[in-house]
Amino acid sequence: MIINEGFKAKRAPNDRLPPGQYEETGFPVLSLGPTPLVPLDSWRFEVDGLVDAKISWDWQQFSSLPAEDIVRDIHCVTKWSKFDTTWRGVSMDQIISLAGVSPEATHIIAHSHDGYTTNIPIEDIRGGKAWIAYVFGGAPLEPEHGGPARLLVPHLYFWKSAKWLSRLEFVRGDRPGFWETRGYHNYGDPWKEQRYTYD
Ligand SMILES: Nc1nc2c(c(=O)[nH]1)N[C@H]1C(S)=C(S)[C@@H](COP(=O)(O)O)O[C@H]1N2
Ligand SMILES: [Mo]
Q1: How does pLDDT run across 91-103, given as a tens digit for each residue?
Q2: What is the pLDDT of residue 13?
Q3: I need a labelling partner for 180 at 20 to 30 A (CA). Which of 93, 118, 173, 174 fits?
Q4: What residues does each domain of the chain span?
Q5: Ligand 2 midpoint to CA 76 (Å)
Q6: What is the largest CA-CA distance in the chain?
């Protein structure tokens, strides 16, 4: 009976599809330019800015940090959403506790190997909301999707999830990144449809 149809799903589809989005089952690639190929033996990731201890990890060190499995829906500003994507990575809470972030810091700037940057308020990366992911769907994160490692901030539009992460800078005061200075919204909440600057 049609009337029972909606009760099969744990949540009705519209409860998990933000306004203006459609469900995508593939995994589209959206990159500004060619995929930077970063060999694991020269890969480094740095945390600096307003931290007690600047840290630089090589791949072996980084991949030995405590990691978590993550299952989340992701939402791209180009209107596709993908449900239940599975990742493994290091939580930003872990990074923050290792580096010791100054109470003065208000935002992070993510820097990537292709020159991409994006800005995120610190409260949006604390409390189990953001990770540095290096496994997708049980396999090492593919280069085109940001491997060796990318930021994952699933509660914001996916442009905030910087691929090919090289550095996280903790700063005081906001500093809009690549897309945020080119017409995308500064914060990017999919549930409020914050796609463009004045949304
Ligand atoms: N370094 C870097 N990160 C990036 C991008 C990029 O061009 N360079 N594109 C962003 C955009 S606009 C989107 S929608 C997602 C796409 O991620 P995907 O290619 O894995 O789907 O990555 C984001 N992170
Ligand atoms: Mo995007």
Answers
A1: 999 999 999 999 9
A2: 59
A3: 93
A4: 45-174
A5: 6
A6: 61
Tokens standing for 125? 């990366």
Three-class secondary structure of residue 94 per DSSP: helix
The residue whose CB lies within 8 Å of the most ligand 1 atoms, and thus the one to mutate among 117, 141, 158, is: 158
C-alpha distances out from residue 51 to 46, 112, 131, 165, 183, Å: 11, 19, 18, 18, 30
> In the predicted model, is pLDDT for residue 10 greater than 60?
no
- For the chain, helix (H) and strand (E) counts, in that order, are 4, 11
Ligand 1 nearest-atom number relative to CA 163: 3
State both tokens at 97: 């506790």
DSSP-derived 3-state class of residue 100 = coil
Cα 15 to ligand 2 centre (Å): 22
Give the torsion through C-alpha atoms of 109, 32, 65, 126, to 10 deg.
40
Burial of 185 (0-12, 13-18, 19+ CB in 10 A): buried
What's the whole-number mean pLDDT along residues 157-175? 98
Note the pLDDT of residue 1. 44
Q: Is the pTM of this model over 0.90?
A: yes
Q: What is the average pLDDT across 157-174?
A: 98
Q: Which CATH superfamily is domain 45-174 in?
A: Oxidoreductase, molybdopterin-binding domain (3.90.420.10)
